[in-house]
Structures are given as structure tokens and as C-alpha cells.
């Protein structure tokens, strides 16, 4: 039994180290794990992707490629899973990182914005008021954009403080997420902001249907 357990753990370890010979765009999406716990949870868990060294690197490269050469001043990540990709993006770009928090965690002066998340729950998001100066160009990062409510609240916070998420031409920053679904909220964001995501066009309908 011990040998079988060891073999199973080694297989899992090898799986998280394996790199395919042909690394097509989005190959790392297969590392994500489906929901096995029922409707009270998100339909997919991307966190397993972050355990794979090459997968995380390629995911980050795809997210940042559309912003190459853009004058980004700071990266902001959304509580909580957006902290992972946001901090990785900030380190890659050699920029500062701002955490946009769920209400009640910051002990300094904050600006608050109510919103409705993907599950329909009413929540409040906060950001510290001393980090964003007028004209600061922000790249907003989250793990996933489903209905768009959470991302839209983050955009409102940044813009209320005078930060710039996007401008018509040239676009100084924008929004990055593994997936931006083709929901009403996702369309609203795509129409107004420069966006980057990792889903190949042929797979987008399946992600929109949560398949």
C-alpha cells in the first residue's frame, strides 16, 4: 500500500513537472481542475495551473503579451485569487503591486465600492486611498471574469481615485484574466477596455458554457 501511495504521489508530481513538446497557446489550461464538490463552488479551479512552473510562466507571458511596450505604472490584483497572477505580473514587469481588498481588512483610509459577484451575493470592495494618484496607469488583474461585477467594481475604484485603466489611443494599461467570459458584463468590459486573456477563440464557447 505504501508503495502504491508513493507511486501515485510521484505520478502527480511528474504530471506537474511535465512540459509538452509542442506548447501551443493555452496548453496549460488543461492543468486546471473541474469542480467535484457541487453547485456551491466555482465550476473550475485554476489554482492547480499555478503549481506547474512552466504552465505559470506561459500563462503569464500570454497575459502580458498584449501590453508589451505599454506605459504601465502599477499592477492591481483583486481579492483574493487575483493576488497570485497580479503579483506575478508586477514582478515580471518590475512594477509595484496594489491589493484591492474585500471590505473590512484594511486598517487605513479606504474608498469603498459595492458590487454583486458571480454568485449573486452583494459585497463591498475597498482600496487604500494613498496608492493611486491621478493619471497613474493601472493594469488590473483577476483570475476570472464571469459576470463582470467584481472587475467592474475594481475599475470604478481605480477611476474614482483618478487612475487610468484604459484610454482610446494609445491604451496605457488595461485588464488581464485567465478567462473573460462572453457574458453581458464581460462584453461591457471588452468594449471599453484593452483586455488580455488565455482562452483560444475555438475554446471560448465551451468556457462560456462552463464545459
From TrEMBL:
One of its GO terms (molecular function) is adenine phosphoribosyltransferase activity. Pathway: Purine metabolism; AMP biosynthesis via salvage pathway; AMP from adenine: step 1/1. Keywords: Cytoplasm, Glycosyltransferase, Purine salvage, Transferase. Residues 59-162 form the Phosphoribosyltransferase domain. Belongs to the purine/pyrimidine phosphoribosyltransferase family. It is found in: Cytoplasm. PANTHER family: ADENINE PHOSPHORIBOSYLTRANSFERASE, PHOSPHORIBOSYLTRANSFERASE DOMAIN-CONTAINING PROTEIN. GO terms for cellular component: cytoplasm. This is adenine phosphoribosyltransferase. Its EC number is 2.4.2.7. CDD domains: PRTases_typeI. Homodimer. Signal peptide: none annotated. Pfam families: Pribosyltran (PF00156). It catalyses: AMP + diphosphate = 5-phospho-alpha-D-ribose 1-diphosphate + adenine. GO terms for biological process: purine ribonucleoside salvage.
